[in-house]
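Record type: ASSEMBLY
Status: queued
Input:
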Amino acid sequence: MSGSSQVYRASTTAPVNIAVIKYWGKRDTALNLPTNSSLSVTLSQKSLRTHTTASCSESFSGPDSLILNNEPEDIQSSKRTQACLKHLRSLREQLEAKDASLPKLSKLTLRIVSSNNFPTAAGLASSAAGFAALVRAIADLYELPQTPQELSLIARQGSGSACRSLMGGYVAWRAGTKEDGSDSIAEEVAPMSHWPEMRALILVVSAEKKGVPSTAGMQTTVETSTLAPARFNEIVPKRMAEIEKAIQEKDFETFARITMQDSNSFHAICLDSWPPIHYLNDVSRAAMSAVETANRKAGKLICAYTFDAGPNAVIYYLAEHTHEVAGVFRSVLPRLPGWEGEFAEQIRPNEYGSLDS
Ligand code: DP6
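Status: finished
Output:
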């Protein structure tokens, strides 16, 4: 069927991921290439996800547009969004060039509508879910044959951590060494079903927008931190290997230790930057103490904290220790503005897209 009023549409959702080995530093700011590899756990979409609908039609006029949480976003001046759209369009053009019967969707104006069910830019990795959902919605709209791994290369240009939200389970983003970034992609280290007992507790310490945005903060760190080179070149490569082994062997104590060490190392290079970057606050530090108390009481590591570019804590633990972990947090942090436990589960990419025809 064809006709100028036809609207082509695809909707998808993408999950949030929380890194246990942090990405903090770019070796190429235009292509969003990182100074080090990173590794994350994909969280359940039940309470943290971005929902995105992409549509195009001959009846749409004007430039491409994006509405995020009911507000129009200026995507014309966003180089990163433009890079994603350009890449996706060129892949669609290649399909159209091969098969003349395909509608020329690559020529049509795109309208994208997106919403998060959690605070945007509060250090809860909203840009990760956001760009992952945008890329997958348009890839589905264009019926692109690319795998999630190939799409991760596009999402990475939107926001580095977004490349890890295109897959479920335990996901590594390989920094790569090529200048064009073609080997800087995400890959699943293990599906969530490999270690389904993993749980993540999100402590929303603050839903305010974060002070220093990631992109600016990272550049300050790369340019000024004297500790950062050791982290990029020696510490992280060793930890990546160790934590991947811990995941394969379901060794929670090693997983927990490395997770906490890496979060602390990331915040240490932030503090070592000039001007210094502070993301943690007193409630964050109380959450760290609560984890230490729970681990001390248990006589082993049963939970691990990690913090992104904001004060919110994410606590990883195994289902069997839910009561001990929740108990410590209830008694140590009784007046937290709000906290909720969230189950991590396997996310199956490409399950949600559809193309109206
Ligand atoms: C602290 O992916 O938001 O959450 O590539 O500049 O968009 P840009 O940065 P972004 O940075 C995330 C940083 C982090 C650590 C992580 O998720 O690995």
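Annotation: The mean pLDDT is 88.
Annotation: Residues 19, 22-24, 32, 38, 125, 127-128, 159-161, 214-215, 308-309 surround DP6 (CB under 6 Å).
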